[in-house]
Amino acid sequence: MQVELTVNGEQRSDDVEPRLLLVHYLREVCGLRAANIGCDTTSCGACTVLLNGESVKSCTVLAAQATGQDVVTAEGLAPAGELHPVQAAFRAEHGLQCGFCTPGMVMAAVSLLKENPSPTEEQVREGLEGNLCRCTGYHNIVRAVLAASGQAEVTA
Amino acid sequence: MIPAPFDYVAADSAEHAIDLLARHGDDAKVLAGGHSLLPMMKLRLAAPEVLIDIARVSDLAGISVDGDELVIGATTRHADLVSSELVRADAPLLAHAASLVGDPQIRHRGTIGGSLAHADPAADLPMALVALGGSVELTGASGTRRVAADDFFAGFFETALEPGELLTAVRVPRRPGIAWGYQKFVRRANDWAIVGAAAIDGRIALANMGSVPLRARAAEQALADGASATEASELAAEGTSPGEDIHADRAFRQHLARVLTRRALEHIS
């Protein structure tokens, strides 16, 4: 079947199997490897991307369901060579260790800040409950999101 | 994990979806947010031959007022219930329940109709609908019928939906300003309830205490007879026979039902 959608601002039309998951479409058809496949069971959030500006887990969305819609991956957050404010805050606050969860964390944080531009620390923690970091780097991740919202001093 | 192959059809109206259901029968499943169905298909617990996508049918989404009820379209997402001024004002228990489903990503995709039709006895929205005394509209080729929440959940992941019927809307009584209580016991973030309890207006519903979301009728009767929250909640597990799993055995679930019911009722008083 044909899917027509926008990925990182680019209008695309691709012939796909109906059962193709959005994360596989992004990684294998579009060549965008930021969204990682972690648990593959809607738990870990490593595959989080924006669908019409809202965070979704792309392991649990069919490419077919994204027809006519707007998808953004971590690659599309900022122009090449630049960092989105959330990405810059993750770097400044050491909001990552191994980096596997990071693209999903960043996309979840972007969606969270869009819905709630000035979250409390508790709201950040709750807002990221769908993303797991097995390096247990949550403190710095939460600080990075607060810094990106302009509410905490960037320490670097 | 990759689902078994299937054909995908996007319905352009509720009638179209019902036509497609009639044509494909048991080979078809309805897809909305897909957050219960797709995980089952990836695990090959479900392998429908046809998916009928109703997510883009605009007349199946949205929240409106009809007299003393809220009418919520089946494809209204959990995130929309959480942010809806109407739901927050007239059925705050439902907005709260929706805010506890999964995590933000799941709430951006999952729908009220999908959650109710999936009928997981541990899920938030089925318990909320039973507590609220709401109902669902089921539409098939011969028209629409209304089924009360108490009659809709027929068994473990089983509902009163007949083959060829589509859950098109959900109705809940409007109760602005009425106190309610909602308790959900979990061990992990974004999980299903090990046990849940929801109470409003003399009704008490329990999650994960049986094959369907249950009414705690003995406790409700005690409340009606003037018992205190503490006294009534002692009866909350009466007649239940909950399942056992790694999280809780039967006796612990019954203990949780009593404690959570008490906390829900204390929140009201």
Sum this structure up briefly.
With about 160 residues, chain A is of the alpha+beta class. Chain A is built from five helices and five strands. In chain B, a hairpin with a 2-residue loop joins strand 12 (about 195-200) and strand 13.
What's the structural blueprint in terms of helices and strands?
The complex is a heterodimer of chains A (about 160) and B (about 270).
Chain A: E1 2-7, E2 10-15, H1 22-29, E3 48-51, E4 54-57, E5 70-72, H2 85-92, H3 102-115, H4 121-127, H5 138-148
Parallel strand pairs in A: 1-5
Antiparallel strand pairs in A: 1-2, 3-4, 3-5
Helix pairs in contact in A: 2-5
Chain B: E1 7-10, H1 14-24, E2 28-31, H2 37-42, E3 50-53, E4 63-66, E5 69-73, H3 78-83, H4 85-90, H5 92-99, H6 104-107, H7 112-118, H8 124-132, E6 135-140, E7 143-148, H9 149-152, E8 153-155, E9 158-159, E10 166-173, E11 180-185, E12 195-200, E13 203-207, E14 214-215, H10 217-224, H11 229-233, H12 250-268
Parallel strand pairs in B: 1-3, 2-3
Antiparallel strand pairs in B: 4-5, 5-10, 6-7, 6-10, 8-9, 11-12, 12-13, 13-14
Helix pairs in contact in B: 5-8
